Amino acid sequence: MQPLPIQHCHAGAERTRAAPDSSLHHKPMPRNSTRIMDPFNFDSPPDRRHSDSAMWNKFGDRDVLPMWVASMHFRSAPGILQALHQRIDEGVFDYASPRPSTIQAAREWFFSQYQWKIDDPWIVWLPGGVVGLNAASRAFAKEGEEGLTFGPAYPPFTEAPRRSGRIVRRVPLALNRTAHRWEIDWDALDASVSPLTRFFILCHPYNPIGRVWERAELVRLVEFCARYRLALVSDEVHSGLVLNPQEPHVPVADLGDEANELTVTLTGPSKTFNLQLSTTVCIAANQSLRERLAQAAQYISGYVNAIGYTTCEAAYRTGEPWRLALLDYLRANRDLLLETVNRDLPGIKIEAPIDATYLAWLNVSELGLPDPTAHFEKHGVGFMDGEPFGEPKGNYVRMNFACPRPMLREALARMALAIKSRFI
After folding, report:
1. Phi and psi (nearest 5°) for 150?
2. Domain spanning 80-318 has what CATH number?
3. Residues near 384 by Cβ (< 8 Å), separated by ≥ 6?
4. CA–CA distance, 337 with 15 (Å, rounded to integer)
5. Which of 53, 78, 161, 197 lies most in the core, judged by the most C-beta atoms within 10 Å?
């Protein structure tokens, strides 16, 4: 297999070595772009070692760079911090509900980003995406009934339903090695439907492979769900992290009346703005689906708290300059990663473009390691193993590159040493 061509970042971010012409390349921004390189100091975030950070604490006192969980290392956007200080200064933290301004901020965000018009009653507020997955599986299937999703699958897609007696079957995506692209195996998808199938969970954009689904693919998926009378649960929490401007995010529910009627969208600011304390915004135009979801969510978890609503509104109202700068920084990190893998890390492959998210799906099967995560941890880099995503152990690891560039360079150097020493 030929090395994957480097995806060029915007001019506002660090440049990488030029690669041969390819249709997979991204056009750089014009040289007169007003974007500056790092206005929010992504290179120097707070030191979170020996804190309450689960990302760092997983490895205790070991010298391991944490690149496993889907959470960024960066300081939050200034407008979010300011809003938090103002809310905390109120000094009262009783049960909360969304202010009209919070609902308006969410509605305006979806319209400004995607030209998607939603009505206020369509929104169900939940304290997290995994809560939404639990609620959806209980709302749309009975115990013993089934759902479908693609594989590799973000682990809660299968684990959340399983723990309430529902089954979600993975339909593996097919790697088109000529086009360097993960694609839907439509025949396998049709063959996976059973009389017990009740819903489909879509990751859009796709964690862990970084795929942005095209409009034609989404239309066909809606038709598939309509044909088999399946609710379509679309996890779009990474929608603000599209790195390829030529592949814009298209909300599934905004593809027409049929899509709007059968789709429940799970989204929110948590991944885009690195707010693991914020809210999940569930959007469902279909009143029956919405009420079933809200009812199923009761008693699964607590309510959204005041901090969740505050950060959501602040992110949507003030976070866009930070987000744009973040995307430039992530593009440069992605390009550095791709270049280094192609040049310096034999036995590791990134098999398709990373068009969205800050996650890389690394094929490490050629290294012949029985436990790749343990081997790389031994050499100071912490990944998430591919096995919980449904892949055989030893084949894949997931890497988070939303970190300061000096840390990424150090991680890549450690990875090179890990490869050289794998037989020692």
Report:
1. -90, 160
2. 3.40.640.10
3. 68, 69, 373, 397, 398
4. 12
5. 161
